[in-house]
Write a structure and sequence with these properties.
The chain has 131 residues and is an alpha+beta fold. The chain has helices at residues 25-38, 68-73, 85-90; strands at 56-57, 81-82, 107-113, 124-130.
């Protein structure tokens, strides 16, 4: 196509080695979205042909939550079912040569008492643990 700018495929950052910089989840998600936009796909619009289900774990049947449905839908697979490498092995399956892992974000709500001058304070802080 004449006049169309060549786009390069962007990839998320790899997990850091021990002792190196910390993995930047926000940058990873941003890179994934930008890569899809560069391909001409708007990730938050539903494609015409869908399975009608959110991405879910094949073994537990639990749908993924948080940012995970978006990250999994960016991969382009038609089926909504996902398993870990270990779960695939336990089910008698294998992973094809050349397949790449898809990053899933573990998050858990944490409730902590606020550290303050007053030990009798009932102030509670809520945050999330991301891994």
């Amino acid at each position: 196509m004449a006049g169309k700018a060549k786009t390069t495929k962007r990839r998320g950052r790899k997990a850091p080695e021990k002792g190196s910089e910390k993995f930047d989840l926000y940058q990873y998600v941003t890179d994934q979205i930008i890569a899809r936009l560069d391909e001409g796909v708007v990730p938050w619009r539903q494609p015409w042909a869908t399975s009608g289900r959110l991405p879910a774990n094949l073994v537990s049947r639990r749908p993924y939550r948080g940012i995970n449905p978006l990250l999994l839908s960016l991969t382009g697979y038609a089926k909504p079912w996902w398993v870990s490498y270990k779960q695939a092995g336990e089910l008698g399956g294998t992973v094809r040569n050349g397949e790449k892992a898809t990053r899933i974000v573990f998050f858990k709500p944490v409730v902590r008492k606020a550290k303050g001058e007053d030990e009798e304070s009932d102030e509670v802080r809520r945050s999330f643990v991301l891994r």
